[in-house]
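For anyone still unconvinced, we reproduce a single protein record, the chain in one-letter code, the fold tokenised, and leave readers to judge:
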Amino acid sequence: MPVPVPRQRAIPAVECGQAPAASPDSGPSTEQAPPGTHPAENPTGRRENPTEKREKPTDTSPETSAGPGTSTSPGPGTDTGTGRTHSGRTESTVPTNLTVLLIEDDPAGSPIVPDLLDQAGKPIRVRTARNLTEAGRLLTDDVHCILLDLALSAPAPARTGSATDAGGNGNGAAEGEDELAVLRHVLELAPRHAVLALTSSSDAERGAEAVAVGAQDYLFRDELDGRLLSRAIRYAVERKRSDSAERRLAEGRLRAQENRRLERGLLPTPLLAGSPLRFAARYRPGRSRALLGGDFYDVVRTPDGTVHAMIGDVCGHGPDEAALGVELRIAWRALTLAGLCGDQLLGTLQQVLEHERSDDEIFATLCAVDISPDGRRAGLCLAGHPSPLLSRPGMPARLLPYDNNGPALGLLPGARWPRMQVELGAEWSLMLYTDGLIEGHVGGGRERLGQDGMVEMVRRQLAEGLTGEELLRATVNEVRELNGGELADDLAVVLLDRTA
């Protein structure tokens, strides 16, 4: 174990296990040198006086030249696996893949850990800490595994209930009779590191309990050899990586489930039981890899046989806008099932928007229709939203009137939204959409598709015999192709059909 040596003594560093461990109040802990050190580095095998370790280390700066017989062993903070000091000067390079932190307080400095080699035959670097305070200082990002001696002295309960032990080492809070208190503190200190527990062969039950608490494995301290320990370290590191990957995967599944639940709120199941109308819908968020957007829609049938349909768009993009869209959709469904319609319903929705929005400048456009029980007439309310597209057999598709289009929700306090009566006929298709369908570009220029371009597109697709889901799929795909890829804005389309 390399130990800082005072210059005046001119004594070289000694190997791990040949020098006693420093007393608890001494300076920084040390790190074991990799196997293969030349015997000349320790010609006498003399044990050092522990008090000498408290003295200042030998200066290893480039300007200092070693005198005859003077060792230039590394000082505190030197990484003996790479030979790089804190000043950045490289002494020697020994390639290594794994770094292990050994936490034990053996006062005699007995070689608990033998020489270690990784799977490629490279030395495994070992750092030694005598308590959790030193372990916290040595627990850097390059440490892969922690070897914890379960015989490490647990802090005695302080009379004042203090979290530190009587010696002030800060090994951890007193846990009463908890034999694994130190392990629990190590797991809190290093939640992302693999931990191997070391115990005696007569205390296998304690080792098993350590694994149950969170250690990756346990080993018998008095049966260790380099090959066994090296294999156990590699296994513990890989098991920790596997556990971490599995945990991240489980967290990802939970997030996906939460997103799907929110998506179901945004994309509801229509309530059309008992209605002869057919329903189809398409939805695409504008954000990359997003599940949700600010567009929302809903369709419900009330007990009197009236079918109510709605589509809306919250200004902006992102999870806040998506959440607000869900709130407005749920509020619309509740108000509709409660019997509200037209101007009264939209006025109440505006109040909900004003209370729920995070900024006074946020608004939402909305289109609402209520189709009579016989399916031949509909009432139409527009709040700053594009007018629906109506198509009937033998007649070209056309936009419904939007002369009485009211303002978007959230713009004008006390606004009104007139309800227009529209004749549908015996057989028809009614398409409700958000502006994401008409604001895509045409080709590589700055020209946009617009409502006129959309009407011509749908007319052509209807002439080709497309209806329902096929019509919506073809429309959305062609809009994306004309735009040259994904649309920048959210897109939602609802189609209601009635056949004679």
About this structure: The chain has eight helices and 16 strands. Confidence is low (pLDDT under 50) at residues 1-95, 158-176. The first helix runs from residue 132 to 138. The helical segments are 132-138, 181-189, 204-213, 226-266, 319-337, 342-356, 450-463, 468-483.
